[in-house]
Amino acid sequence: MGADVNHEQPFYGIGAVARLTGLTDHTIRVWERRYAAVVAERAANGRRIYKPADVEKLILLKRLTDRGDAISQIAGSTIDELRERAQSMSEMSSTQHPDRVATAVLGDFLPGALRHYQRDLAPLDVVLTDDSSERFLADVQRYDIDVVVMESPVLDDASLDQLTDCMKRAGAPRGVVLYGFGRARDVDRCRDFDVIALRSPANVDDVRGAILRAYTPPTAVAKPKAQSKQVAAQWRFDGPVAPRRFSRQQLATLSQASTSIDCECPHHLAELVSDLSAFEIYSANCASRDEDDAALHAYLHRTTAEARALIEVALEKVADAEGISV
After folding, report:
1. pLDDT, mean of residues 185-207
2. Which pLDDT tens digit goes with each residue over 163-179?
3. Domain map (residue ranges) of the chain
4. Which partner from 156, 286, 293, 306 sits 20 to 30 angstroms from 258, CA to CA?
5. Average pLDDT over residues 38-49
6. Could you write out the three-class secondary structure of the chain?
7. Which of 206, 13, 88, 85 is nearest to 75 (CA)?
């Protein structure tokens, strides 16, 4: 990196390097200043300029950090070392083909994108998506989840705590956070919690790749103590809750929508769905005195979800009949 400038080779300004690598100007400066990942030359006007080798190294560093490596651990590696590590990680990923990766997603935009491309996500099985953290925490306990994915505009202690809480509730060993802005030290801390940090904007393929890298094959764990026959018979709970069809924003839109006739059915149905969703959250988090009480609350949560799903179907049909777009 410290060799004399070869004026015959091309040089790139920091904006061009950002476009070529997918990194932001800020990240490039931080990696250079804090970790000496690359050392820019200076043009006659004092601006940073980078050699093709610098660009290649930054591309490799981004690829590896996207896969979970900490920049502090790999910034000092040579290009050859980074190539070798990237190759070994690619070979490792290509030899592991899980049949199914049960995924739960919390966020404002990512759930819709993943639902739209669901057929192209195999072996990912997106079993739960939501934009409400309360609803998500209530529902995720009813699934067997491999990886929890969360969108967050900022990566900090609070967002990492929120994600690890979601992982704990879901019994998921690994997580992925798609973040907008964050400090390098917070990105590094993600590794301590088995979380892969992926910088947005990221496309669906990037997210899919991060989830597959995060996935770890399940290991045998001690199963919870079996319920008594009386409990199992009276409050039997099998399978996941019904998935939600509407986000909070969509319900608000439907609640305020005007129709072609003097009819307030969309408004009332949207309120019913909201009320049932609220009780789902309440029953999922209600304190239980004993095993029977816990089974009862699980039963209430499940039956409320089934009722909410029925009303959602009715609301969907009414909205379609009235030409209400959500």
Report:
1. 85
2. 999 999 999 999 999 99
3. 12-94, 97-214, 229-322
4. 306
5. 90
6. CCCCCCCCCCCEEHHHHHHHHCCCHHHHHHHHHHHCCCCCEECCCCCEEECHHHHHHHHHHHHHHHCCCCHHHHCCCCHHHHHHHHHHHHHHHHHCCCCCEEEEEECCCHHHHHHHCHHHCCCEEEEEEECCHHHHHHHHCCCCCCEEEEEEEEECHHHHHHHHHHHHHHCCCEEEEEEEEECHHHHHHHHHHCEEEEECCCCHHHHHHHHHHHCCCCCCCCCCCCCCHHHHHHCCCCCCCCCCCCCHHHHHHHHHCCCCCCCCHHHHHHHHHHHHHHHHHHHHHCCCCCHHHHHHHHHHHHHHHHHHHHHHHHHHHHHHHHCCCC
7. 85
Tokens of 215: 């996935």
The domains spanning 12-94 and 97-214 adopt the same CATH topology? no
Look at the alpha carbons of 147, 242, 121, 154 in this order and tell me if their dihedral is positive or negative.
negative
In 3D, which of 145, 160, 194, 159 has the Cα closest to residue 174? 194
CATH (residue range 97-214):
3.40.50.2300
Instruction: Return the CATH number of the domain spanning residue range 12-94.
Output: 1.10.1660.10
Which pLDDT belongs to residue 310? Answer: 87
Tokens found for residue 14:
């920091």
Q: Give the orientation angle of helix 52-66 with respect to helix 14-21, to 10 degrees.
A: 40
The pLDDT value recorded for residue 6 is: 53
Summarize pLDDT for 227-269 with one digit per residue, the tens.
Answer: 444 444 454 555 566 677 777 778 888 878 765 556 788 888 8
Tokens of 192: 């301590």
CB of 17 closer than 8 Å to CB of 54: yes
Q: Return mean pLDDT, the chain.
A: 81
pLDDT digits (tens, 9 = 90+) for 45-73: 889 899 999 999 999 998 887 776 778 88
**161, 191 Cβ separation under 8 angstroms:** no
